Amino acid sequence: MANAADTTLDAPALTLSRMAHPAPTSAEARAAVLANPGFGTHFTDHMVVIEWTEGRGWHDGVIGPRGPIALDPAASVLHYAQEIFEGLKAYTHPDGSIALFRPEANAARFNASAARLAMPALPEETFVEAVKQLVLADRDWIPAQDGASLYLRPFMIATEAFLGVRAAKSYKFIVIASPAGNYFKSGAPAVSIWVSEYTRAAPGGTGAAKCGGNYAASLVPTAEAFQRGHDQVLFLDAAEHKWVEELGGMNLFFALDDGSLITPPLSGTILPGITRDSLLTMAREEGLNVREERYSIDQWRADAASGRLLECFACGTAAVVTPVGRVAQGDSDFTIGSGGPGQLTARLKDRLVSIQRGSAPDPHGWVVKIG
Ligand code: PLP
Ligand code: COI
User: Can the keyword Amino-acid biosynthesis be found in this entry's annotation (predicted)?
Assistant: First the structure.
């Protein structure tokens, strides 16, 4: 991104200089990607980069061609993993407009993660504007088919060349975009999960922050889950190894036969999911007895065996709402309900997706139209 700026976009919080792309992807190559985007393997033509330095704050925002970034080999992020990220999606609505889903919630969580990782806060308007400008620059990359969208990945890295262990004095905020279909390759109607013996997060740790280090630590347990033929890893609490926390990249819900819907509380060790929060709101509106409370793996197994547990589902931006059909721990496993999708899961998913995709009214003001 070293070319001269040729246009300037006016953002409320920070002005992004625009660099023209010398060779954007051809319409044919883009159409081939959009026909079958998968998850996380294809990227759009542009990216946003904004710099932060101590004493100067956020400056030099650019939207330009996506490409490699230069980093000093001593940059703190490469040694001490001072990195945070977000995930949100852009959708094309039936009227042809483009919308984001609750981007301010991602901006707020980004700053909560930044605070935990000793990184500078980014004004929420700048976060949302950067995402918006990228989506508009790459609007032809939003897949149109049902279930597909443009996944946005804002992130921040520590760039200072310094090997002492303390918060860095310079950072880059970057946004990239990736056309996305189903997160789960199998495309199975319900996923299977593996209960790990590893711990994801302990009280006082970084479990509630969306930092890369949490995911690095989940890779061995995730590989174990895959080797055993499961789709996701589940983590129990660090202290008692008993209470259900969350999956590698999703929150969990349990629907019981007495009309209650349980999800683990935001204890500081799990990610406060925006999908989780949206579903809690919708379930309360439906009159379900919604409970944010601890649920043990033993209770889960017992409730699945007795039939008291009707449905279980995972939720997150990438996974949307995905039924969980089977759970394995050590040498034993159990099935939930019929092992396939249940009615409540399907209804909540449909209500959420309809709002996100603009085919139902948006009573909570969650949808932000950007173009
Ligand atoms: N938990 C973890 C560990 C995640 O990575 C994610 C995905 O972002 C979630 C939960 C769900 O969060 P959200 O609904 O905000 O995408
Ligand atoms: C998301 O849902 O946005 C996530 O970050 C989960 C995973 C892809 C890391």
Answer: yes
